[in-house]
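User: My collaborator and I are trying to settle a disagreement about how two of our proteins should look. Neither of us wants to argue from intuition anymore, so we agreed to look at predicted structures for both before our next call. Could you fold the first one, then the second, and keep them clearly separated?

Assistant: That sounds like a sensible way to settle it. I'll keep them separate. The first protein:
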Amino acid sequence: MGEIKVSPDYNWFRSTVPLKKIIVDDDDSKIWSLYDAGPRSIRCPLIFLPPVSGTADVFFRQILALTGWGYRVIALQYPVYWDHLEFCDGFRKLLDHLQLDKVHLFGASLGGFLAQKFAEYTHKSPRVHSLILCNSFSDTSIFNQTWTANSFWLMPAFMLKKIVLGNFSSGPVDPMMADAIDFMVDRVFDQSALSTEAKEEMYKLYPNARRAHLKTGGNFPYLCRSAEVNLYVQIHLLQFHGTKYAAIDPSMVSAEELEVQKGSLGISQEEQ
């Protein structure tokens, strides 16, 4: 990998969309950072949960595109929690602070795992209206590491990046995928691509879920195949238009416009 390239869109995003910091726990060191963009009249927004140790800005392409089409989008960066129950309690408090009774969740990798756990945690009084899981998993044991895991915290950044890069294919990739890997590696997370076994386990857990397959896009499709990901998100959220759980201002985007976008990209969705 060469020099990390920062797109003009990302620079514009950072200069125009403010990053908010919110404390909802008694521990003042636990700070939630988030981008909240789009119409505040929407009471059931789409919330993005990032990968391992992720930052909210990895979803900048979704924020820019979806809010431009009238959606309310929130991208989170969570504080350190030492178990998923602690995370779920903190996330519930955050939703209370934001005065959001129900939300749609998009979780990438660990973010998807946490989204599932939060849905389970609140099942008696549901706070999750729908889930979109991207390269996610249901069991963290798939990330069991070798002896080196215990020494990660001692390593300098260049060594961690070398370990992370070692988990990606060494073959040729297109420029957008290379830039996406650079962007993510610079934040040193999402070390492991999902195994076939982990994917099959997810399919078994959600046999009736719609599957959106991308032929290319690697581990970070929301960065390097953002147009397709954004379209699939819109298709998913379309079913809630006209209800109190709509994540979009109804005056902004029509079903006809969505069909035009779908046709122009020439991609389809498999329902199973």
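The second protein, kept apart from the first:
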Amino acid sequence: MKNQITDEVIPWKQLPVENLTIVTEFLLLGFSDLQEMQFVLFAVILCLYLLILGGNITIITTVRLEHSLHTPMYFFLGVLSFSETCYTFTILPKMLLNLLSVLRTISFISCATQMFFFLGFATTNCLLLGVMGYDRFTAICHPLRYPVLMSWWICKLMAATCGVAGFVISLVGTFLVFSLPFCNSNRVNHYFCDIAPVIHLACGNPYINEAIIFFGGVLTLMVPMTFICITYGFIVRTIMRIPSTEGKKKAFSTCASHLTVVVVHYGCASFVYLRPSSKYTSSKDRLVTVTYTIITPLLNPLVYSLRNKDVQMAIRKVISWGGFSPKNI
């Protein structure tokens, strides 16, 4: 807390008990400044959320049922779709409820829980995209060794490692935020409990915790992103050596969908998290956050279904098995 006269930061433990108001719940301001436009926003986000659920569940079901997609690339795509579905479920239902509600409160425990699961699935997605880059690297650069390098045991181990590592990192980050004292203001200038707007409300001196979180964010984003850039450097070099133009196009097409999702996901996440929370600007950050909490999960099934003929054919097969073939309608 700051001394109003000298603007000096006073350690919270030195404050008199009667001057402390312990926060037991937070108020999510969200898009309250839009007033009547919130109803329009509710309809738009609800439609997008249903598309996200439908698209990702379709991908998961198709990969599970269609034997031609039982390959490492589509296995990781199915895991990513599952993670994206859970990721949006931690944020969007509460966001939709708040758009129709005057009371936008969330309890202290619920806020911490939301942050834990959001960071857990978000970090898992970052690591999965890195693993998917490695899969493309082994498939294109080492095709003869691919069955050994990407055996089912190794694929499952990689997916499990991404999940465990994601939630361990999330647990540390959430603990560093909510181990700080919160007193007086409880107004979170965001539509969910994200790190920057919540830690901004902490009393005392959060700089050490903030520095550790920032360093962890740099590692979580930059290590997989650097790894993806290196693997794609080798992929491009290998593809350029393919003599036929048709072979080059086919090799590039298998990477284009993954690369599109990577650019959007890491681009938006880097803008928000690769800077101190003191640089947080509510309006601009909310707009970018909407991109990676709504657009990116929607982009994943759209890109892979629209650009990938194998997935398109598999979806048609699964639909026909369910009795929904156009011939039967």
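Some points you might bring to the call about the second protein. Strands lie at 25-28, 105-107, 187-188. Residues 324-329 have pLDDT under 50 and may be disordered.
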